[in-house]
Structure formats: C-alpha cells, structure tokens
C-alpha cells in the first residue's frame, strides 16, 4: 500500500503538473500565432475558453494535454508565419494551412517538429528555400502552388515514411535528389526549374510528375542528349612540305612518300574540278535568288513562324496568321493599361502550341522571343464587320477590370483573320481540375476548393451582367472557360463574343450548358447565363459532364438526370463520390444543390439573378468555411 501511495503521489506532483504545463505552452503558442498573423475570418480562440473543445481547427489527444492538429484552410490568413509560434507545438502531428495568403519564409522550427507527419501548406505564397531540417516522421508533405526557390533539401532521402511529396508549381531549381524510400506513392515536381536527369529511384513515376521543367530529361521524359565533340582534323600529307630538319625516311615512310606523290598527281585533277565548280557558283547563286524572290511573293501572306502543336506525339503545323494582311501588319490594338510591349510581327514569330479547340475558335499558348507568354484565341465564324467587331472588343476591354474576369489585352482584325490576346493563365481550367485529361494521376478536388471557385465565378458573371449599363451577357459559360490562376483564383474567360459570332453547332459537352430557350430561339440573355452557371454548379457537385449518355443513341442533360435521381429520393446518389469521404458537409452540398436547381429552372423568369446567386452561396460559407478541417475523416487528410 505504501508503494501504491507513493506512485500516486508521483503522478500527482510530477505528471499532472507537467500535463498542465504542456497544454498551457501550446495554448500560448497558438495565441501568439493568432495575434501576429492577420486573418479575415474571425477565429474563436480566446484565452478564457478551453483549447481542446472549443477552439476552431484545433484537435488534442484524449487526455487534452497536447495539441495534435491545427487545421485552418481558407480562413484568410495572410502575412508570414512568425517563429516561436506554431513551432512550439512539440506534439503536433497534422498541420494544414492550405488555401490562404501566407507569405515569406517558412520558420526553421516548423517542419522539424518531432511528431509532425502531415503538412499541407499548398496554395499560399510562401517564398525562400524549403527548410533543410525536416521531421523524420513525415508521411505527407504538400508545399505546391507557392513561390519556393532553391534546391530540394537533400535530407528528403532519409524520410523513410514519406508517401506523398507535392512540390509542383514553385520556382525550385537544381537537380532532383535520389529518394530511395519504397513508401513514396505520390510524387509531383512539375512546373519548377529543375535541371539534369530524373534520378533512377524516381523513374517509375509518370511523366506528369516532372512536366513543366524544360531543363529536365531522362525517363519518363525525353532522352537526355549526350554531346560528343567531333575529333580535330589531322593535317593532310599532301599539303605539308617536309622540314629541312626532318629525319631520313624509313621504309614505311618511303611508302608513304610514294603514296603522297600519287596524291599530288591526283590533286591536279581535283584543282581542275574545283575550278570548274567555282565557275558555276555565280549561276547557282543567281538562280537561288530568283527562286527565293518568287517564293517570298507567293507566301507573303503566310505566317512562317507560329506553328500548331496538336499533341504530345504528333505536331501538325498550322499557320495561325495565314490571314494577316501586309497592309495591316503591326495593327495589334492594345487596351489602356496593358504592360505588353510586342507587336503583331513578334506574335507571328512566336513559338506556339494548341491549348484547346472550343466553340468560338482555337486557343494557342504563344511564347514570344523575349520569353513572355500569352494566350492567343483565333476566332472562327465571325459574322461582324470590322467596325462592329472593334466596338464589341472595346466594350469587352472596359468590362474586364475585375479579379474574377480574365482581361482582354489586345485584338487584331483583318478580312481573313481575327485574333484575341490574353494573359496566359498557368493553372488550367476548372474542367481539367474536375475531370483531368485522362483521370490518371489527377488530384481529387476538395469541397472548399470547389465552392471557392464556384463563388468567384459567380462574382465574375455578376460583374459582367452589371457592366455596360446592365446589358452585357457572357453567352458561353462552361467549366473549360473557368481558368484557375496559380494562387487558385478563378477567372472567367471567353465572354463578349456571342454577339459577333454565328450560332455554332457545338459538341454535346458544350451543348449541355445551353438553356432550353437558347436552343429554340438562338438568343442569349442574362437568364440563359444563369442556366449555364446552374449546370456548372451541378457539374461541380456531381463530378459528371453536362451531358450524360444513357444508352447507345440516347443522351440526357445533367439537370434532367439530377431531377430524376432526386425525384426518386436518392439524393445521396447525386454527389461526386470524391466528396463523400468528407464529414459534415452534407448540409452544404444540399444547399448548393438547391441553388443549382433554382438556376436551371425551365422558365427563365423564375431563375434568380446572378447577384442573388452570389448572396446565396456566400450565406452557405461564413458559418462553415473555417470549420472545414473538422470535416476530414482522419488526420491523414489535409
């Protein structure tokens, strides 16, 4: 009994005070973080409330003595993370601060926390180098979509538990180190500035893990080229004269001298042949000049530089400036405030590749000689004359001053060619984000990201509808026209083109966005825009394309399919299976589904306005956005 009592006293006097000290230390560290890091969404962190049961985004162990996870995605944090704040959470296992606006260097004490296993800091604006000291227990590290520079830390080689490494869309340089851990299952180092060859330990990953690094080569990318210098030419015996100091020839040298004399006899014939050939050079040169002049006259209207890259394996060329007229060269019209300093000739000399072929034309990625990158849309089926075209483009240029509307930088008009120039957006489209090119290696899009993109798209459309005296419409709303910037901000593109285009015959995927009245009357309105946005919301919620194939020759558009499922009271079957792994978002999904169904109403007059749609989506988020991390199924998810 004395021994038991003694042990209880030890627990009381040593263990419990230590536990209380630990939680107080964690609490103070978090308060320091909240005081020093501005945030647009109010945190309910207060020194007078219990840390482990009421603080937003904080989870503790069962004894409530240590903080195990900090999850604060998309809560509007901005500025740098101060040292001696989160780096004091010695028991921290999961850290998720993704989709904020955090900047500056990562504190050296943050990623080396002894228990840290899961780090999700993607979609911020961190800079500087990645800290060289990392926790040996790291399982998942996601630093993608930031502005990190420098090399990958070499001590990644020692992280034997690492299963996921995401460093894409940064500015990292140098060679990629060997990473020998057999646990690594997901790797993405794309769109950085790495050079050299892909290390042998990582060559089993797909090419998408390394794309966008122009100086990188080797399996699974292009084969590395090996430069072998050509041998130095040796002097010909026939042209060298013997030196007075040369040694008497040996028998072997005597034979060489004999052969050399024969070559001297042949060299006379050679000289004669050269002389005859030289006399023909002026004639050949004159003929070449005539051919070049004729060819230049014939092809004066053709673009000789900008080629179309049709795919990864085949590169069909297409002169995108074939309709550019000589009399109108350099008449690329820029809008006020544009920072571009190139002309039409520069654009036509640029190297290019096809980004996509849409309803209104083909879009190219053009890399100019000075290194800047723009997107060029080559319009087809334009029915407007030059004056109407220019007036419409001027109106479009005035509308585009909004963070969620892609600005038009410049345009070109000739009889046979109409070009639009935009800033190039690196993040791809919402369609690609949702569906991927072939669903291979695609990262599932979480609920927060989907709602954020949908809300920003709605704000962009509402801005368009309020511009031009309230008479502006978009007319071509679809997921492939929602572009995603590197900081995950959405911009709507391709607007303002409907009034100058003929009514196009479009593929089923695009036709699924069209309102019923547009199909009948071929007239676009604000209400038809709202219908298209409703289809976009359904696409976001279901993960399905806007037209569903139900049989060999039968197709059902997405609104009708959703209505049929909801009518049978199988609402849960509507939602994307990738969203079902998140906890406590069912209510938000149902509310968003209700907004979508209101937008796709058959009667245009009963559809809400775009401003009303924005307000409805905003009402879903304030109470729940910041608690999103509590909706994760376990600590392994960001």
Give a description of the structure.
With 638 residues, the chain is an alpha/beta fold. It contains 13 helices and 23 strands. The protein has helices at residues 2-36, 51-54, 251-298, 344-349, 386-399, 430-435, 447-466, 508-511, 516-521, 526-542, 558-567, 586-599, 610-620, and strands at 58-60, 67-71, 78-80, 94-96, 101-104, 118-120, 125-126, 140-142, 164-166, 173-174, 186-188, 193-197, 215-217, 333-334, 351-358, 361-367, 373-379, 408-413, 418-423, 482-484, 490-492, 547-549, 555-557. The strands form six sheets. A seven-stranded mixed β-sheet has the order 1-2-4-6-8-9-11. It has a six-stranded antiparallel β-sheet with strand order 14-18-19-17-16-15. β22 (547-549) and β23 (555-557) form a beta hairpin. α12 runs antiparallel to α13. The longest helix is centred in the middle third of the chain and has 48 residues, at 251-298. The chain starts with a helix and ends in an 18-residue tail after the last helix. The model is unreliable at 9-19, 226-266, 295-319, 326-330, 550-554 and 623-637 (pLDDT under 50).
Can you describe this structure in just a few lines?
The protein is an alpha/beta fold and 638 residues long. The protein has helices at 2-36, 51-54, 251-298, 344-349, 386-399, 430-435, 447-466, 508-511, 516-521, 526-542, 558-567, 586-599, 610-620; strands at residues 58-60, 67-71, 78-80, 94-96, 101-104, 118-120, 125-126, 140-142, 164-166, 173-174, 186-188, 193-197, 215-217, 333-334, 351-358, 361-367, 373-379, 408-413, 418-423, 482-484, 490-492, 547-549, 555-557.
């Amino acid at each position: 009994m004395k021994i038991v009592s003694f042990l209880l006293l030890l627990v009381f006097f040593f263990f419990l005070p230590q536990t209380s000290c630990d939680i107080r230390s964690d609490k103070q560290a978090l308060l320091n973080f909240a005081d020093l890091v501005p945030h647009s969404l109010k945190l309910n962190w207060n020194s007078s409330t219990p840390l482990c049961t009421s603080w937003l985004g904080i989870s503790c162990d069962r004894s409530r003595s240590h903080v195990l996870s900090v999850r604060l995605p998309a809560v509007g944090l901005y500025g740098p993370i101060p040292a001696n704040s989160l780096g004091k959470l010695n028991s921290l296992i999961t850290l998720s601060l993704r989709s904020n606006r955090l900047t500056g260097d990562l504190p050296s004490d943050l990623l080396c926390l002894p228990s840290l296993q899961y780090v999700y800091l993607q979609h911020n604006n961190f800079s500087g180098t990645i800290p060289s000291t990392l926790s040996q227990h790291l399982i998942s590290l996601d630093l993608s979509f930031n502005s990190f520079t420098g090399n990958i830390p070499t001590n990644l080689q020692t992280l034997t538990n690492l299963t996921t490494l995401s460093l894409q869309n940064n500015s990292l340089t140098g060679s990629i180190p060997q990473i020998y851990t057999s646990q690594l299952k997901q790797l993405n180092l794309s769109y950085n500035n790495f050079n050299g060859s892909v290390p042998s330990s990582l060559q089993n990953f797909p090419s998408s893990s390394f794309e966008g690094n122009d100086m990188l080569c080797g399996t699974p990318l292009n084969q590395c080229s090996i430069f072998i210098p050509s041998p130095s030419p040796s002097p010909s015996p026939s042209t060298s004269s013997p030196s007075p100091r040369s040694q008497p020839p040996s028998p072997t040298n005597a034979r060489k001298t004999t052969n050399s004399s024969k070559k001297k006899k042949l060299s006379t014939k050679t000289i004669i042949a050269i002389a005859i050939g030289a006399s023909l050079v002026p004639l050949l040169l004159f003929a070449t000049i005539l051919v070049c002049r004729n060819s230049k006259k014939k092809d004066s209207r053709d673009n000789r530089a900008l080629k179309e890259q049709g795919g990864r394996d085949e590169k069909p060329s297409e002169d995108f400036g074939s309709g550019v007229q000589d009399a109108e060269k350099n008449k690329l019209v820029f809008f006020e405030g544009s920072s571009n300093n190139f002309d039409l000739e520069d654009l036509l000399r640029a190297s290019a590749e096809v980004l996509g072929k849409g309803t209104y034309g083909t879009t190219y990625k053009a890399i100019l000689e000075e290194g800047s990158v723009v997107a060029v849309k080559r319009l087809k089926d334009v029915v407007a004359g030059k004056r109407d075209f220019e007036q419409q483009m001027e109106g479009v240029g005035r509308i585009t001053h909004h963070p969620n509307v892609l600005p038009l930088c410049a345009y070109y008009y000739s009889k046979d060619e109409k070009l639009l120039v935009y800033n190039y957006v690196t993040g791809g489209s919402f369609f690609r984000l949702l569906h991927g090119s072939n669903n291979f290696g695609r990262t599932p899009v979480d609920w927060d990201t989907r709602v954020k993109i949908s809300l920003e798209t709605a704000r962009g459309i509402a801005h368009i509808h309020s511009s031009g005296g309230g008479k502006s419409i978009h007319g071509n709303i679809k997921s492939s026209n929602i572009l995603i910037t590197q900081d995950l901000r959405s911009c709507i593109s391709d607007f303002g083109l409907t009034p100058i285009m003929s009514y196009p015959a479009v593929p089923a995927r695009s036709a699924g966005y069209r309102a019923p009245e547009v199909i009948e009357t071929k007239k676009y309105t604000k209400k038809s825009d709202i219908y298209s946005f409703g289809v976009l919301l359904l696409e976001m919620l279901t993960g399905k394309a806007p037209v569903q194939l139900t049989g060999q020759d039968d197709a059902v558009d997405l609104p009708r399919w959703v209505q049929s499922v909801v009518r049978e009271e199988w609402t849960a079957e509507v939602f994307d299976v990738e969203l079902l792994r998140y906890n406590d978002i069912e209510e938000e999904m149902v509310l968003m589904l209700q907004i979508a169904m209101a937008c796709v109403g058959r009667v245009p007059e009963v559809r809400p306005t775009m401003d009303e749609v924005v307000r409805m989506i905003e009402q879903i988020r304030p109470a729940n956005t910041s608690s999103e991390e509590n909706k994760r199924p376990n600590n392994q998810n960001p």
